[in-house]
Structure formats: C-alpha cells, structure tokens
C-alpha cells in the first residue's frame, strides 16, 4: 500500500534509521520523487517538525561501512548544497552551502542485509537526482543507474592569484567525488583531451578551449 505525503506525491521508500555519529537518535525517512523527509523519532520531539531535503539540491549519495569490523551496520550519506541565507558586507544574500547527512542501517543482524537496504536507498536517490523514473513498484537496485560519468579537469595552478589548486582541492574535487563522477586532473598544456572538460582558470583558458588554440601557446 502506497503512503502519501500531502502534495509531495507518492512515497517511494520509507524506513527508520540511526545517524552517524551515533547519539542514540533515530529518524524516520520518507522519499518522494522530489524530496527526502527526515523526522526525528528518538528522543521524541515536542513538535511534528521535519527536515525536508529537496532532491534538486542533492548532488549524490553513497554507501559507507563502519571502520570497526565488529559493527554490522551499513550507512548511506546524502550530499546536498541547498541555498541558505548569509550575511554580506551590504545587506544579505544567499549562497549554496554543503550539507552531508549520514544514516545508519542497523535493522538486520548481518552487514550484508544492512548493506542491501543502504544500497537501495542510495540507488533510489541517485535515480531521482539523475531523472530516472521510478515508482513504489520499481525493483530498485544499482543496475538502474548509468555508468559513472567522467570529466577532464584542466587546471592552471597560477590562476586565481595562485590559489587555483587549493580552491580546486577544497571545493571542486569534493563535489565531483560526491556526485560519483570520475575525473582526470591535469595542468594546462596537456594533449589528448576527450569527453567533458572543466577549465579551472580565468577567461584565458576558456577562450583558448573554445577557439581550439594550442594550450601551450603563450
């Protein structure tokens, strides 16, 4: 029987999980085609308030395992970059800020069964983020997902006042990894580029790429 969440439509998945780091807190999760609803169960809240993660803000979801081999729990982590208010020099503005929510699957006694549940949730979230249609009747598994995407990153380490490499490592690479995109990172001047490419530099490299100029040229 399908569960409905108001105007959000059919609930595709529903479950109760812990969180990481574990503090004895339990949450009920409900996944619709557009949102992930998170409601605390333990400790019982004073109100029916729930956190809603819009899937349009989600970049990826992955499964994890505890570093402790005796822990039979599996985990899945949801990475999102929602728009949030922030104070600026004049007035206020909005910017995307990273959030990572990790949930602990521990209903089964063995890791294999818990991992199966975690992988199902991760696959469902990825399908919705990528626009792959699923329903409550769909047999959800990783087989529904396309092959991971690949990117070629061109980096000018002298760009951005010499901070391009640091900015790439602290901002760009984590987001690409969270989105399950594999990449090759090379400095400008390398040949043999194929597929998608992201230029991490000022306007110069982008103009050279668009015009087909040799990146070794001055």
TrEMBL record:
Coiled-coil residue windows: none
Organism encoding this protein: Varanus komodoensis (Komodo dragon)
DAGKc domain boundaries: 146-218
InterPro entries documented for this protein: ATP-NAD_kinase_N (IPR017438), Diacylglycerol_kinase_cat_dom (IPR001206), Lipid_Phosphate_FormReg (IPR050187)
A Gene Ontology term for the protein's cellular component: cytoplasm
Molecular function terms from GO: lipid kinase activity
Domain of life of the native organism: Eukaryota
Entry protein name: DAGKc domain-containing protein
GO biological process: positive regulation of apoptotic process; sphinganine-1-phosphate biosynthetic process; sphingosine biosynthetic process
Gene3D superfamilies: Probable inorganic polyphosphate/atp-NAD kinase, domain 1
């Amino acid at each position: 029987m399908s569960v409905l969440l108001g105007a959000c439509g059919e609930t595709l998945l529903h479950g109760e999980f812990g969180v990481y780091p574990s503090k004895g807190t339990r949450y009920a999760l409900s996944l619709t085609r557009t949102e992930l609803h998170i409601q605390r169960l333990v400790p019982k809240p004073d109100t029916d308030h729930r956190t809603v993660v819009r899937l349009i803000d989600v970049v990826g979801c992955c499964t994890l395992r505890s570093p402790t081999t005796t822990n039979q729990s599996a985990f899945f982590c949801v990475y999102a970059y929602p728009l949030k208010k922030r104070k600026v020099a004049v007035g206020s503005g909005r910017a995307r800020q990273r959030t990572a929510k990790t949930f602990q699957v521990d209903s089964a006694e063995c890791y294999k069964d818990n991992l199966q549940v975690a992988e199902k949730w991760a696959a469902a979230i990825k399908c919705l983020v990528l626009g792959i249609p699923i329903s409550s009747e769909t047999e959800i598994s990783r087989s529904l997902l396309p092959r991971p995407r690949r990117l070629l990153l061109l980096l000018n380490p002298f760009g951005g006042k010499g901070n391009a490499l640091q900015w790439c490592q602290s901002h760009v690479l984590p987001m690409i990894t969270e989105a399950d995109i594999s990449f090759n990172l090379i400095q400008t001047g390398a040949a043999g580029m194929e597929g998608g490419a992201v230029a991490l530099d000022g306007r110069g490299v982008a103009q050279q790429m668009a015009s087909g100029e040799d990146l070794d040229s001055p």
